[in-house]
Nodulin-like domain-containing protein
Amino acid sequence: MKNQFFKGIYQRHGAFNLYLLAFLLSISACLSLGILTLFSIFAEPLQKIMGYSQSTINNTIIFQVLGLNLFTPLSGYIADAEGIWILSIISFFGYFIGFNTIIMSINNNLDKKYIYLSFFIIGCSHISFLFGCLLNSAKTLGRYYRTMAISTPNMMVAFSSYIQIQILKKYFQPIDNDIVNVKSNFISLLKFFMITLMISSFISFFACKLTDIIEYYEFDEEQINTSNHESFLSFETSPLLIGAGTVLHSPENSIIGSPRSWYDGENSPMLNLDDELSLLSSESINQSVPTSDGILRIMSSFHELTPYKIKVRNFLSDPLMYPLLMCCLISIGSTEFFIANLNTILTNLNLSNYLDSNLQLLSICSTITRFIIMIFTDYICTRFQISRITIFTLSVIICGISHIYLSSIPVTSINFQFVMIMNSILNSAVFTLFPAILASIYGIEILGTTWGLCSSSSIFGNMCLNLMYSIDFSSHCVGNYSNDLVICSTLTFFISGSCLIFFGFIVFLLRQRYLHKSSAFF
């Protein structure tokens, strides 16, 4: 009965309309994820209520970053191998446990290790939730509009931060600095985030299950439609002809411009053409002309290596992957370190009263940047022959210049809005452009794994910079908060800026090699 109900919905509305609904549900769920860029709102209450030092605040950031990044590769694997919907379940329970642990720690004045644990759990929940929404968006509308589908969830996160800032200003501002009032207000704030994130996780779960149902009936329909082609699938057909047949008979709703089929069966005995050619090329390293024994070895390996494993192996063995990895590491690490410590940096510059306005500038700039990338990137790349990787590396280099600028210019002369905008643009670009770059080079079917590995690499950049900033702050800022010459935490920003410029320049020089690896101009 239930199967007939879902099948009737599929036949009545069609695959595209249902995929569009699943996409809209996924991006709507992202409207609660503005908290990703709003850690600064937690810093001051924790310092006032719990008496935490700047070092403890930085350690809290590090534990959240550990959760975000250590769980990223696992999230990618779970999504690719087991199902995206599992990530929504993980985030639902993670938010419930994490926020209640913080509330319990505040009410009972527990040791700071419980705060560390709770933010670690929340970090794991954040990445599970975001990955679930992003991958489901790519899996639905990404079949038709790749860049827009991948970019939209990140744009909604930026837009969400602006909405949440307005909500916090209106409903969660403490009346005065009385510790009881601050504590009550902060607990209400935590409950607000917990409830909205748990509801959004459930919406994301529903969107993922809807996608699975559509794919089930779509696959059934494709099986019927391709039954007339069975004569082409003789057991006598060679492996290369089977691959060619797979490409020629790809479903009409495959990704535009993608030279591969959308068969999703993990145990399918057929590999598409690029996988078979990859196997043949690996066999021909020692033999310029494949022998019959070589072909037999290739055929026997079909049962050992699925297309997913082959593509992941090719990704990990590609030497060009590592400069991209390092560039992603420092880009995410530097910008998230900057945003998380925004309150302390502003205090250092005697601008502590401008936290709200700078957070609004951050969210507005992020939203606009992600919207521009989502709408205009494909047109700009095609019309002006500028690759996505060129746009990305230029934003990395410019942001690096802004960090060196912050570390070198006298405090009274610093244009902080410039630094804020450059960090916002890079943070938006790396989360919006980088997944599309990886999908173009290595394939969208392993995007969860490739983007999971690259984004999790930022743990080293973020953690190292936060540790360095903690030491730098203790040595040069405590007791001498304002310096007439330069910002007191000069070393941290100089190093982050130098690393951004160096790795951005390396990837920029290698951009033509990445273009040759991609099947489409990205």
Q: What stands out?
A: Residues 453 and 502 are 21 Å apart (CA to CA). Residues 228-305 have pLDDT under 50 and may be disordered.
